[in-house]
Amino acid sequence: MTSTDTIFAVSSGSPPAAIAVIRVSGAAAADAIEALCGKRPAPRRASLARLHDANGALLDEALVLWFPGPATATGEDLAEFHCHGGRAVLAAVERALAALPGLRAAEPGEFTRRAFANGRIDLAEAEGLADLLSAETELQRSAAISNASGALSRTADDWRERLLGLSAQVEAALDFSDEEDAEGLPECFTWNIADLAGEIQEWLDRPRSERLGEGFRVVLAGPPNSGKSTLFNALVESEAAITSPIAGTTRDVIERSVAIGGVPFTFVDTAGLRDIGSDEIEGIGIERAHGQIGRADCVLWLGEEGQGPEGAWEIATRSDTVDFMAKTAARHTLSAITGKGLAGLKEDLVMHARENLPKPGEVALNARQHARLGEAVEALGTVRGLDDLLLVGEELRRARLAFDRLVGRATTEDMLDALFGRFCIGK
Hints:
alpha/beta, Four Helix Bundle (Hemerythrin (Met), subunit A), 3 domains, 43% helix, 17% strand, flat, Gyrase A, domain 2, Rossmann fold, six-stranded mixed beta sheet
């Protein structure tokens, strides 16, 4: 595989479909159009054409678009065939393209990787695009599209320009340090360093994008037969957990991810908590339940009032039964069987999750981006404790390198392989 190959792939959804789009990118894109259509259409205008293979057999009648590079999505010559979306049609067109010299099928993410390599997008935008393609909820979509549209990249570029200005002040002070009337760094230098570090720290303090991927984690906890599995099934709207009057029915952790009100959640049903399990397997389940409580963003406590983990929500369940035990400080009283009170619990969870997840339209940093900005803040923090201008300049260079690595000006092939391998073929 080389970057000089011309690549092609179906970039629309899986067939069959009404219309399917086959993209071609590379130096031989124009040759591919002429080979299948007999002529090259006007740039950036949809043209109706009959597609033929090398033997002259009719393949399909399609809309054809021609985009000369470098002002294209990939930065290369680009062609699109908008064909009928049947499997046989697509297979025939792909066979015809594969038979042309210099063309080959694209690898996963190769179109986007070429866009990055040709400077059409940077690394942060590519990561946002990958998150956008995998988004399943409104919050995930909103955060991903902000990153894909370059919000983080523009902010990082602004930080980098300010850092360059600070580095220039250090260089100027070094150039004139031997002169008797040299004044050194201006008084505002330290303030500007602190302001820049403070702005970056605000981004670091935001909820991370991984929270959006996994969802707000809600653990249902309590003793055996407290109604955890019944409530769990009601929240995820499926019979995921077995319910039974027999104590210890749930012996392991059960997880389900759902979206409520556009917010991603992961609900976790756990084994009933008691001092001694009926057997070794139940004991393992109880141990795992304690582990899940430690990982939870929110714990719904269905047991005796005041006996749950610190910060847990007191939930009084089974309000429809004759032996119902009310809680004086219940956050919610409900019946998972009749549904009474369930809507209020869901609404409360959505509001609580929104307060603790990235805000709509706000860029959420992933682990890699968080680490790079952390390196920049660390370097800027070191600067404030230094008197040696050479060391100050080196720490500013280290912070600048962190910004370059953030947007992909300095990166490794292994990291790029891992990122673009997340994309589907055709993107």
